[in-house]
């Protein structure tokens, strides 16, 4: 950064500005911000910042999120490259932010601002945004919806995985193999389903060994029954990768087609982010927009240096360039002279950068071609420069560069050498700079410079006020008043002996004493006029306050009347809406009651038929397409007949004659279900119907007589029948020594699942129960562990 700008601490202001940005590019742009020397460009930048302040105040600032510069990735996609999922998601996120900022602006698009050119450069692309986000879930996951082919492949993978797990599930629960297993679990090695087998029993479980535990006690074997399913899964995984790569290429090509629009939109987004960051900085500093000129006129009111604590900073008024071109500021050390110079220079640079400045409204600043500064002690041991030599080196450079478009700020001009020679040199430097038509502000302790300002037209005195009573500076800058030396008064106040102070006063020349007396009289006169002005201002402020109060009362009365009318309209509308909603609710309850009544008296078989029809449509099992579909029963079915359920090839016993709708209640094993009569085939071999059911004695089956069942399907049953079936299945499982039972109840409305789980909580034979996980049927099944 320019050395003069850094001396004025512009770099610290730009760091604050960068901290207000959201985008990395806007952050870099903020740090590299340069003052504009052209008046129109600087005015445009200020107006843009002011418009952003107004929009933020009315509508809230837009959210720029974490949009990223995707130019490189987009150019690569445009050239035919394939982008990664994270790169595509970054593009989608940037498009989303561009769209939201565009939508934010659309709410007040009719309001014309200097920012419209940037908002019009934002081109939203919801098609590409949704295309990417619907296909890519995260950096590591592609959605099934990305393509029909990918969805089909993954469906096949799930089917193959389910088959493999079913086979393995039978193995790990088989009494023949369970003794050889280390644990009754299914795991994976190298993407293939395996079971953990004890190392010494590896030959008892035929299959392929894929891994060994670290202890060597367990080997992971892929049983031969799942080798083909695992092979299918492996092949499908390869197809899945190929399809994902094709999808990424396709999305990259789509992004490449819109690369130019997206890159241009992002540039406009970064520009807007920087402008609204300027607005946020202005809010934090309570800044306003100054009036800008190129005539070198400066009139800053209530200026507060932005790097000083806002609770401690004292506002100052600074003038230069209108009635005088040179300002000579005097006053005690630590009185605020240097801060005044820095405030003047920093405000000028901030305005030229398009930043609002913390001062009162209608303050005036000017653009300069050069801002030249010599502030601070820049002595260098390495370069063998004293304080005086360092200052003179800087001033020589300033004298070479200064012209009519320059602002020169010099601290302690002529200090660091003999006072007589230093004062003479300081006057000569000011005269030389004035011949170059530069605008100058300088601080000094020399009385000769005060006299020079008094007798030279175009040169004005200024001083930093000091309170002799409290021995503290007030930090106020007084234009047109030379600073009075307070050395004697301060010394006496601090306790210096009176004789020493009087002797020092005698040693001062008559000219100096007379000058100090004049300065003292001017100061008293100034203070008197200031008090009178303060009283006049108080009276004016009081009158304005009363006037404003009366106007506010009138406005409030009018607003209250309008508000009451509006409230009455809204209350009437609420009453109408509430009455209409209540009427709609009553009609809905009547209709609901009528429907419930119809259901309660409707034939239950008709509802069952509709449910069966719905399940038939959802059931992937299709009826066999053979000539035997024209089969006709040789005689009507009766209770006790043995029939074949044709579509699942399973024998069953008729429990009730056919209904009017052609539904027959049959029992297959322990399962009771209703089957369409067309799906039944009468078998010649008959079983004795239900002699045992009506005999006076009950035969209790032994464990050898009961066929072990690990699954029970109750889909299509009523809740009451389903619970009875589950109860019998649990009894048979306990008798058979089966420790795990799978109940298939389907998802549907959830009634069966709820009733069955409620029953399982009360069954003493149940150790625990849970819903299935992926590969087991998920929420459609309940896994029961028996005691």
Describe this structure in words.
By secondary structure, this protein is an alpha/beta fold. It folds into six domains: about 5-125 and about 260-285, MutS, DNA mismatch repair protein, Chain A, domain 3 (Orthogonal Bundle); about 145-250, Orthogonal Bundle (MutS, DNA mismatch repair protein, Chain A, domain 3); about 290-505, Rossmann fold (3-Layer(aba) Sandwich); about 510-600; about 605-690, SH3 type barrels; about 705-785, Ribosomal Protein S8, Chain: A, domain 1 (2-Layer Sandwich). Helix content is about 50%, strand content about 15%. It has 22 helices and 25 strands. A six-stranded mixed β-sheet has the order 12-13-14-10-15-16, sandwiched between helices. Strand 18 (about 650-655) and strand 19 form a beta hairpin. Helix 5 crosses helix 10 and helix 8 (about 125-135) runs antiparallel to helix 10.
């Amino acid at each position: 950064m320019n050395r003069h700008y850094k001396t004025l601490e512009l770099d610290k202001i730009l760091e604050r500005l960068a901290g207000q940005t959201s985008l990395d590019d806007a952050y870099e742009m903020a740090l590299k911000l340069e003052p504009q020397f052209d008046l129109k460009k600087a005015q445009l930048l200020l107006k843009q910042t002011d418009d952003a302040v107004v929009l933020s105040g009315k509508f809230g600032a837009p959210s720029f999120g974490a949009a990223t510069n995707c130019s490189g990735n987009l150019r690569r996609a445009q050239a035919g490259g394939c982008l990664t999922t994270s790169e595509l998601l970054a593009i989608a996120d940037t498009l989303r932010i561009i769209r939201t900022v565009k939508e934010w602006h659309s709410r007040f698009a009719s309001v014309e601002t200097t920012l419209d050119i940037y908002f019009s450069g934002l081109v939203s692309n919801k098609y590409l945004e949704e295309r990417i986000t619907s296909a890519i879930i995260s950096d590591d996951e592609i959605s099934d919806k990305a393509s029909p082919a990918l969805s089909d492949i993954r469906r096949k993978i799930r089917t193959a995985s389910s088959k493999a797990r079913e086979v393995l599930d039978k193995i790990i629960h088989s009494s023949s193999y369970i003794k050889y297993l280390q644990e009754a679990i299914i795991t994976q090695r190298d993407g293939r389903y395996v079971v953990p087998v004890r190392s010494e029993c590896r030959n008892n479980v035929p299959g392929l060994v894929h891994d060994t535990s670290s202890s060597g006690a367990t080997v992971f074997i892929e049983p031969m029954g799942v080798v083909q399913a695992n092979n299918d899964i492996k092949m499908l995984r390869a197809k899945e990768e190929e399809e994902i790569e094709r999808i990424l290429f396709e999305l990259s090509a789509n992004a490449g087609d819109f690369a130019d629009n997206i890159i241009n939109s992002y540039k406009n987004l970064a520009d807007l982010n920087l402008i609204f960051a300027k607005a946020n900085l202005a809010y934090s500093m309570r800044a306003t927009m100054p009036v800008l000129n190129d005539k070198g006129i400066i009139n800053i009111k209530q200026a507060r240096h932005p790097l000083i604590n806002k609770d401690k900073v004292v506002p100052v008024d600074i003038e230069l360039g209108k009635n005088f071109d040179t300002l000579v500021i005097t006053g005690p050390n630590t009185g605020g002279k240097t801060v005044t110079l820095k405030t003047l220079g920093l405000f000028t640079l901030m305005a030229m950068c398009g930043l609002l400045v913390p001062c009162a409204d209608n303050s005036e600043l000017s653009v300069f071609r050069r801002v030249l500064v010599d502030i601070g002690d820049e002595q260098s041991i390495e370069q063998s420069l004293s304080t005086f030599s360092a200052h003179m080196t800087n001033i020589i450079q300033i004298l070479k560069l200064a012209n009519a478009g320059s602002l020169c700020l010099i601290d302690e001009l002529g200090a660091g050498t003999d006072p007589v020679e230093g004062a003479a040199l300081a006057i000569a430097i000011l005269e030389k700079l004035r011949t170059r038509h530069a605008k100058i502000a300088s601080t000094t302790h020399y009385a000769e410079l005060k006299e020079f300002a008094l007798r030279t037209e175009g040169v004005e005195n200024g001083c930093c006020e000091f309170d002799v009573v409290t021995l503290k500076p007030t930090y106020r800058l007084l234009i047109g008043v030379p600073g009075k030396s307070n050395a004697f008064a301060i010394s006496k106040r601090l306790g210096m002996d009176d004789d020493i102070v009087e002797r020092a006063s005698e040693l001062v020349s008559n000219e100096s004493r007379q000058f100090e007396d004049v300065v003292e009289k001017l100061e008293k006169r100034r203070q008197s006029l200031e008090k009178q002005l303060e009283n006049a201002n108080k009276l004016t402020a009081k009158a304005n306050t009363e006037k404003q109060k009366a106007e506010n009362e009138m406005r409030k009365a009018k607003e209250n009347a309008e508000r009451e009318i509006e409230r009455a309209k809204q209350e009437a509308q609420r009453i109408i809406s509430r009455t209409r909603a209540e009427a709609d609710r009553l009609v809905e309850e009547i209709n609901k009651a009528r429907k419930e009544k119809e259901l309660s008296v409707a034939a239950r078989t008709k509802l069952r038929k509709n449910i069966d029809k719905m399940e038939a449509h959802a059931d992937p099992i299709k009826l066999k397409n053979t000539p035997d579909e024209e089969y006709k029963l040789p005689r009507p079915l009766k209770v006790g007949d043995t029939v074949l359920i044709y579509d699942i090839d399973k024998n069953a016993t008729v429990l009730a004659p056919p209904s009017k709708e052609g539904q027959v209640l049959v029992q297959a094993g322990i399962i009771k279900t209703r089957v369409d009569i067309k799906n039944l085939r009468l078998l010649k071999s008959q079983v004795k119907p239900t002699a045992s059911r009506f005999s006076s004695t009950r035969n209790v089956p032994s464990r050898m007589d009961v066929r072990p069942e690990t699954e029970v399907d109750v889909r299509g049953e009523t809740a009451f029948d389903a619970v009875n079936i589950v109860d019998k299945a649990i009894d048979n499982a306990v008798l058979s020594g089966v420790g795990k039972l799978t109940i298939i109840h389907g998802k549907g409305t959830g009634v069966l699942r709820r009733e069955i789980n409620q029953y399982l909580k009360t069954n003493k034979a149940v150790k625990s129960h849970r819903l299935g996980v992926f590969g087991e049927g998920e929420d459609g099944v309940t896994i029961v562990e028996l005691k």
